[in-house]
Specification:
Elements lengths: L3 H13 L8 H11 L6 E6 L3 E7 L2 E11 L26 H15 L6 E9 L7 H7 L10 E8 L7 E3 L2 E4 L1 E10 L3 E2 L10 H12 L1 H7 L6 E10 L6 E2 L2 E10 L2 H21 L3 E10 L2 E3 L1 H13 L4 E3 L11 H7 L1 E8 L18 H17 L3
Parallel strand pairs: 3-4, 3-5, 5-16, 6-15
Antiparallel strand pairs: 1-2, 2-4, 6-16, 7-14, 8-12, 8-13, 9-11, 10-12
Bound molecules: zinc ion (ZN) (2 copies).
The site of one zinc ion has 4 residues, from loops.
Length: 383
């Protein structure tokens, strides 16, 4: 069993040594070494990158429950000066994945002494959550096929919500989102003779205007799910007064409460990008980055989280609306069919996630551990 001091030390050590998405080799090795004391029945490494899965088998048949943590940190310079600050310039754990790893490690220590009675429990450490690529890579890894769970659960610490309080809802918990990159190609010319070239300037403005109007256009199609579009970047030509521009790029983040709403956003964005560029005689190329499906909680998964809160005397609230931020955990609930993600309050005064002064609150480790353990007991029972 790991006590709170050991778990806090583990968390701070992980915080001190952050690694970016797809580069979590040493973090995975640290967890792998820690778990070598926990007598799991199977260890699966390098799943979808540096992903790890530790399997604890019960003696009777039953369902498989997967509990997920993330391995990666962010490209953010830490401004805290405490002893466990990041030793890597420009990289730090600003989403609390260090804390999530400590919580799931605490479960490993418990399962090393108390096995599931039925079915099996998988403790999973996924890579590259921040880019939206890690969960999909892990789930699509052929070696993950025998590990596909019946239930999947995860938590995310959540600044702004009372410390130690859970927020959860059935249905969409995190919105779908994706980055769209629209490249417009015309032809440069001397600025004195713009008529010899083909400038994408006006088409670029129209694309930006159309993107900004997409949420109303989706509504006009009768789709009730809320959508948001944020134009995040635009560039036209080069900084040169002697040259009329020949290329432009527009980037925006599309966001929707459902995957269906996202599909409509994508269809409309592509339609308007194609229309405006064709009218101007330009070429267009469209691609996507950071694609997140909506993370959807099943009704049973939601109810089990509520039951876990009651069983552990944890305050909870049922959210009216989903979190607007995205999470690739939805890939696990999509294959498991049952499961839920929930938020665990990090306090009203905590700096927000992804902010340079953020740090995970270690007092959440026992709360998260107790909630997950209760979920495991509900589904798999423990010896
Ligand atoms: Zn994050
Ligand atoms: Zn996160």
């Amino acid at each position: 069993m790991l006590n709170q001091d050991q778990l806090t030390q583990l968390r701070k050590n992980l915080h001190k040594h952050p690694e970016l998405s797809h580069q979590e080799r040493q973090t995975a090795q640290r967890i792998r070494t820690l778990f070598s004391d926990f007598n799991s029945d199977e260890v699966h490494e390098n799943l979808g990158g540096y992903g790890l899965a530790f399997v604890f088998n019960g003696s009777q048949p039953g369902p498989t429950t997967l509990i997920r943590s993330e391995l990666d940190a962010l490209p953010i310079q830490e401004i805290n000066d405490f002893a466990h600050r990041s030793i890597t310039d420009g990289v730090s754990h600003k989403c609390g994945h260090d804390g999530h790893m400590a919580i799931v490690s605490a479960l490993g220590a418990v399962l090393s002494q108390r096995k599931p009675v039925k079915g099996r429990v998988i403790l999973c450490f996924q890579p590259a959550e921040e880019t939206g690529a890690g969960a999909v890579d892990m789930v699509n890894d052929s070696r993950f096929a025998p590990l596909i769970p019946d239930y999947a659960f995860a938590l995310h610490n959540y600044p702004g919500l009372q410390r130690g309080k859970v927020a959860v809802k059935p249905g969409t918990f995190n919105c779908a989102s994706r980055g769209i990159v629209i490249q417009l190609k015309g032809k440069t010319s001397h600025a004195a003779h713009p008529e010899d070239g083909l400038s994408p300037a006006l088409a670029m403005c129209k694309v930006i205007e159309s993107l900004s109007q997409l949420p109303q256009a989706v509504k006009a199609q009768g789709i009730k799910d809320r959508c948001w579009v944020t134009v995040v970047h635009a560039k036209l030509g080069e900084v040169a007064f002697g040259t009329a521009p020949g290329e432009a790029v527009v980037m925006a983040t599309l966001r929707s409460e459902t995957n269906q709403g996202m599909q409509t956003l994508v269809d409309l964005a592509e339609h308007w990008a194609n229309t405006h560029t064709q009218q101007a005689g330009l070429q267009v190329a469209i691609h996507y980055d950071d694609v997140f499906q909506a993370s959807v909680n099943s009704e049973e998964g939601f109810q089990r989280v509520v039951t876990a809160c009651r069983n552990t005397d944890t305050h909870y609230q049922v959210m009216a609306d989903p979190m607007r931020w995205s999470e690739d955990f939805g890939q696990f609930t999509a294959v498991a069919k049952q499961g839920a993600m929930f938020a665990l309050g990090a306090g009203e005064l905590s700096p927000q996630l992804h902010n340079p002064d953020y740090d995970f609150d270690d007092s959440l480790i026992p709360v998260g551990k107790a909630l997950f353990l209760d979920l495991i007991k509900q589904i798999n029972e423990l010896t």
